[in-house]
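Technical annex, item 7. During the second reporting period the consortium partners agreed on a shared format for inverse folding records so that results from different sites could be compared directly. Each record opens with the tokenized structure and is followed by the designed sequence. A conforming record, contributed by the partner at site C, is shown below for reference.
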């Protein structure tokens, strides 16, 4: 494929600057629509997420983009290319949020995509291929769905990556409805993801997937860089619905050796895993570990009772699949040993494994060239958090990510992305889309 000429980098940069009022308006309106008094709440397959999708669909139509939705409810906003039979470039991120979250996590990628398309038009750059901005559903589903599932339900559904039975084993925390019921009651069609019909999004029809996202940690802020080019995304081993069952009894009358204390057994397990994490770090093995839920039953717990039940969740992440496989064995063995010694049953539930994803080397190299041409300071950076880009990678589609500096982390109402930093990242995205057909063909899937 012969690469098409693109406007000079300075022209693309000026056009992106001229399009920034669109980004500011979308962020402001999104915050207004989904504010919850603390931060924002855009629940997966709920009212907040739907308000966000409606806002972006209206914005896309005002830009004369083609719009459509898929059977999972994901939104597609397309700028037609000159040769529409060619595989398209996709740009996207998610539009849901955690409870009381920030306004930028996820949404910044969709805002950047629409801003970049507007900038391409301002610069007079009609792309060779279609460019589709995708507003993705239910990426934050680990907040909103319990049960056995692999996360990122909106993207994985249309990429053909759902596990057998996952439509029914993922259950919404607020409504108690299954993923299939949530999809259907939102006006879409879960039956399209049952059986062996193949993925809705065909990998051979996608040239690559690009995602802009705020960094969810402090590295760019501490290193003084506004932009990061993501090298890879950590995988995760998760126990979403672990439970320790012991025996309720009197807190003053039962001696230590006769107790079945669910809290102390669970605490020993999670604390021992922290010790294992320390050993992993000392051996320079990549790993992070979190216990995000740990609670007794409010119907039964009391200061005068030995606790008989604890529910908890754990999240172990690494860029090394060997670490995740090893930790599955470690957690299982510890649960058995501690349970036997303390006379309780520790049920880890069905642990889910998400494999690490390396970002496409050729697209990353191309982005670095763009940073040089646009005079954007950047650094290479791994992602400790999961993203839809990993699912595109897992489906065999070249994927890459741009991180934007964010002083206060994410999944909280204090996300602190500066619009000047966002403008630099969006400028890089615009340049990458305008020059995408210069990327080495080796980065594209075989068609």
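Designed sequence (site C submission):
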């Amino acid at each position: 494929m012969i690469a098409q000429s693109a406007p000079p980098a300075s022209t693309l940069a000026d056009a992106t600057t001229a399009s920034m009022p669109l980004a500011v308006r979308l962020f402001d309106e999104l915050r207004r629509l989904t504010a919850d008094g603390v931060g924002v709440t855009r629940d997966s397959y709920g009212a907040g997420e739907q308000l966000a999708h409606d806002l972006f669909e209206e914005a896309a139509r005002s830009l004369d983009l083609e719009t459509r939705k898929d059977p999972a409810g994901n939104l597609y906003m397309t700028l037609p290319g000159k040769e529409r039979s060619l595989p398209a470039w996709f740009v996207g991120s998610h539009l849901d949020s955690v409870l009381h979250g920030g306004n930028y996590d996820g949404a910044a990628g969709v805002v950047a995509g629409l801003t970049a398309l507007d900038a391409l038009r301002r610069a007079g750059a009609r792309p060779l291929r279609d460019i589709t901005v995708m507003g993705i559903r239910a990426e934050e589903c680990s907040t909103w769905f319990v049960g056995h599932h692999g996360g990122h339900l909106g993207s994985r559904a249309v990429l053909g990556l759902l596990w057998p039975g996952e439509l029914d084993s993922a259950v919404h925390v607020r409504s108690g409805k299954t993923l299939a019921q949530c999809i259907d009651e939102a006006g879409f069609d879960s039956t399209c993801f049952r059986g062996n019909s193949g993925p809705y999004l065909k990998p051979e029809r996608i040239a690559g997937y690009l995602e802009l996202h705020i960094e969810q940690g402090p590295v760019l802020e501490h290193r003084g860089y506004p932009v990061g080019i993501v090298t890879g995304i950590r995988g995760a081993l998760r126990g979403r619905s672990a439970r320790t069952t012991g025996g309720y009894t009197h807190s003053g009358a039962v001696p230590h050796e006769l107790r079945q204390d669910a809290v102390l057994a669970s605490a020993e397990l999670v604390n021992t895993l922290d010790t294992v994490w320390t050993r992993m770090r000392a051996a320079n093995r990549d790993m992070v570990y979190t216990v995000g839920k740990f609670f007794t039953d409010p119907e039964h717990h009391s200061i005068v009772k030995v606790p008989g039940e604890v529910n908890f969740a754990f999240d172990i992440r690494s860029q090394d699949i060997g670490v995740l496989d090893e930790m599955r064995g470690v957690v299982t063995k510890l649960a058995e040993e501690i349970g036997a010694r303390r006379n309780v049953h520790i049920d880890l539930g069905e642990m889910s494994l998400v494999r690490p994803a390396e970002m496409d080397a050729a697209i990353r190299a191309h982005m670095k060239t763009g940073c040089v041409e646009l005079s954007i300071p950047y650094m290479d950076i791994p992602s400790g958090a999961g993203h839809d880009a990993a699912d595109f990678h897992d489906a065999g589609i070249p994927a890459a990510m741009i991180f934007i500096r964010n002083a206060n982390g994410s999944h909280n109402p204090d996300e602190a992305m500066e619009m000047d930093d966002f403008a630099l990242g969006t400028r890089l995205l615009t340049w990458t889309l305008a020059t995408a057909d210069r990327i080495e063909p080796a980065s594209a899937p075989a068609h």
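The CA atoms of residues 240 and 313 lie 5 Å apart. The domain at 9-233+356-443 is CATH 3.40.630.10 (Aminopeptidase). All partners now use this format for quarterly exchanges.
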